[in-house]
Every structure is written in structure tokens, then in C-alpha cells.
Amino acid sequence: MDIDPFWDKWNAASIGALVISPVPLLVLIILERAALRWSALWLPCWRSMHPLWILVFRSCAALCMSWFLYSRMVLLDGIFAFYYYTQWTFALVIIYFVIGACISAHGCWIYSKYHPPDNEEANGLLEGDLEENCPLILTYRTKQNRSMPKLQRYLEEEKHQNARFWGYVMQAIYQASAGAVVLTDIVFWGLLVPFSSDKHFKVNLITASMHSVNAIFLLLDTFLNSMSFPWFRIGYFILWSCSYVAFQMFLHNWDLSWGPDLFPELNTPWIILWYFVMALLHIHCYGFYVLIIKAKNSVFSKCFPNAYISSD
Q1: Residue 9 — pLDDT band, cuts 50, 70, 90?
Q2: Can you give the pLDDT at residue 292?
Q3: DSSP secondary structure string for all residues of 32-52
Q4: What is the DSSP string of the chain?
């Protein structure tokens, strides 16, 4: 049953104010970019792991998710598949893996260029031992520089350089996707599935996969990469959701509506309360992923002190 047009307009104005009000502050937060090392985007957090493994994983994740989104959603619903926040988030995770695969490919090239082959590395260690017993050689080249691998010297020099444009884009998408994935999956499995009364809303293999595959792939990447996850970049996540709300309000002006999602129709009673709760839930969802990163660094550092490199 439709509500009075006055309340419909009041809801739209209230939601618009709720969406627009934090944007200036979020932009200022995002502009305060912390230093980001290029190697953190493609080097694994495990010392003995070759970066090629992350490249293979990200490429497979991008291909699998793209095939699933296209064959299960786009072919069936066309452009209308992107009415939902879930599909937006699913596509955002795909973009992250595509950019991540490209950066990992470049990182593998750097790794092959600076990392010596096994026989060369062994010879370097042997020469290092000889230099320790030969003062004459030490006068021409210090022991530290001689025994340090080329890759390690490259990483030491890189500490004073910031990542390139696509590095910051990848990091922004990574942190926006993390919060959005937690939000969609928690609301879907925790609210919509057990409490939805819509007869047209049914859980099938496609909807279940859409709300699990993205989280599984993103978590696996998190346990492999060495990227940091600071609190202040929650702005990326909130701006992503604000963009979807603006998109929904545009469709509302054309009297277009759809089934249940994280952001229901604007003419729903008490809709402003729902949007306010969702705004607060953004903090909890992003904080949940921050806790995952902290738990990863804490547990792996204690269990595998010689193999794991903390991203803190």
C-alpha cells in the first residue's frame, strides 16, 4: 500500500541529507593518504611464497567470479541485474582482482629481475663467507651490501617511494569491497533469510553463491597479501554505499522498484530509520574486517614467526 506523497518526499529528502552530510568529511579523510609501498600490493605475507602464487590466485578469482556474474546474472536479467547492491559489490570485488592480477604480474617481473636464481644466490652466500675471512675484499665492498640480495636492496630503496596511481586505486577498492562484502553477507544471512516475508524472495544456489563466493575469495586474498588495513579508510566503503543510494534515488524518481535488498524502496514506512541503522552498521562491518586483519597478524606471527611477515 502506497503512503502519502508528502511522506514519500520527506523520506527522500531525509535520506538525501543523511547521504550527503558525511561526504565532505569523508573526502578530507580520503585525501589524507598514508604511505603505501608498491611491493605491499604484490608481495605475499609469507617469506617462502613466490609472488606468482598470488598472481595465479587473483587471475583465477577474477575469471571465476566474472563467469559466475555473467552466466548466472547478466545473461538472465541483463542490465537489470545491477539493480541490487549485492551485484554492485560482486562486480567491485571482480575489479579488485583484475587490477590486483595486473599489479601482481608487474610484481612478478620485478621479482624475476631483482631476485637471483638459486645457484646465483648460493654463490652469493659462498662469496659472502669468503669476504668475512678476507679483509682486502672488505675494503672495496662492505659485507652488508655484498651479502644483501638484489630484491632486498630494491625493497629497502622502495621504502622511501610511494605507490603509483593504480596502487592507491587497488587499495581503495580492496577496503571498500571488504566492508561491502561483510555488509551484504551479514544482512542477507542474518536478516533477509530468516526474517523476510516476501513470497518472491527465495534462497537458491545463485543467491547463496552471490553472498558467499565473494567473501571466500576476498578472505583468501587477505590471508595471502601483505596490505595494511587502516581504520580511516572506511571513507571508501561509505562513499561506495552512498553512490548506490544516489543511484537508487534516481531510479525512484522514475518509479522503478525491485525486491528486497540492503536498501529497500524509498516509500517503505520507517525507511529513514532503516537507513540510519544501515549507516551505523557500516562502522561495525568495516570494524569486523579490521579485526580479521589484526587477528591474522597476531595469530600468524605467533604460530609462524619465521615464515609470516606482519602487515602492521
Answers
A1: low
A2: 95
A3: SPPP--GGGGTSBSBTT--TH
A4: -PPPHHHHHHHHHHHHHHHHTTHHHHHHHHHSPPP--GGGGTSBSBTT--THHHHHHHHHHHHHHHHHHIIIIIHHHGGGGGGSHHHHHHHHHHHHHHHHHHHHHHHHHHHHHHSPPHHHHHHHHHHHHHHHT-HHHHHHS-HHHHHS-HHHHHHHHHTTS---HHHHHHHHHHHHHHHHHHHHHHHIIIIIHHH---TT----HHHHHHTTHHHHHHHHHHTTB-----GGGHHHHHHHHHHHHHHHHHHHHTT---S--SS--TTSTTHHHHHHHHHHHHHHHHHHHHHHHHHHHHHHHHH-TTTB----
The residue whose grid cell reads 542474518 is: 190
Distance CA 104, CA 159 (A): 18
pTM of the predicted model as reported, rounded to 2 decimal places: 0.80
Across the chain, what does the average pLDDT equal? 76
Q: Is the pLDDT of residue 94 over 90?
A: yes
Contact present, 42 and 51 (Cβ < 8 Å):
yes
Span 42-63, mean pLDDT? 94
Q: Hey, what's the torsion of the CAs at 94, 100, 105, 107, to 10 degrees?
A: -170
> Which residue from 290, 233, 307 is spatially nearest to 36, judged by alpha carbons?
233
- Which phi and psi (to 5°) does residue 3 adopt? -95, 170
Confidence of residue 124 (pLDDT cuts 50, 70, 90): very low
Look-up: residue for cell 530509520? 273
